[in-house]
Every structure is written in C-alpha cells, then in structure tokens.
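lol ok so funny story. i was supposed to be doing the assay writeup but got distracted and ended up predicting the structure for this chain instead. priorities right. anyway since i did it might as well share w the group, maybe its usefull for someone
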Amino acid sequence: MDDNDVKDNLDLVHLLRAVTVEFGLRQAEFATRNHMHPTDVRALICLLDAARADEPVTAGLLGTRLGLNSAGTTAVIDRLERLGHIARFRDARDRRRVLLRVEPEAVRLGQEFFGPMLDGVLQALAPLSPAERATIRRFLTVAREAFTP
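and the output, tada:
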C-alpha cells in the first residue's frame, strides 16, 4: 500500500469517526430534549435493535450490551420505565423471566427526532447499486467488529 492509499484510508476512518461524533451529539440532544440520560438513549437503541432482530431482552442482557453493572442497569430501566419509554413484562415461554420492550411513545419520539436524519441517509443510499451497498455494509461490519471487545 502506498502513501496515497494510506492517506485515503485514514481519510475514510476519520470520516467514519466524524459521522459517529455527529450521531452521538444528536443522541445527546435527543436525551436532553426528552429529560433522559445519554445512556438511556443507548439503552433504547439496544432494545430497538433487539426487537428488529426478534431477540428477547432481559435486564442482564441489556446491562451486558451497555457495559453496566446490575445497579446501573436497574437505574436505567427504572428511569426509562418512569418516563413511559419502556415496559417490563413476563416472558410467555418462561414466566420467571422478565423481558423489556420499548413503548410506542418512545418510538414516536425517536421517529420524530431522528426520522429526518435517517431519511437523508436513505436518500443518499437510494441511487447506489446493490454492489455499492454491499461494499459499504462489508466496511461498516468490519469497522464495527474492530471496535467490539
């Protein structure tokens, strides 16, 4: 790899970092507007991602994904439940297990705030070919794996 390739690759890494910083700032703004802690927003994202994957989430799994201890996880869940953003419910298959889900009002708030930004990203992706989107997907997957412990 020559110096131009290294510089070009670093430019892409820095651009990815800039996108993540901007996204983090928008998450913090969303949290502030909705009287939440930034960790609460991360918890909602984890729960929404799990719902899209049809994956049941317990408090323990949420805590693991957020890197929180039991007390910290309970505090996040209690705050989100008090705000009406999540609900706890018994697992239909194992009544001993308590699962978490995002409530429709939290989804509405998220769509209202993040929807225009996501629409902009979707519009940018629309003209790309399936092969171009596959390349972006591969890159983002590898980048995510590089940061996953």
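The beta strands are 86-90, 98-102. DSSP finds six helices and two strands in the chain.
back to the writeup now i swear
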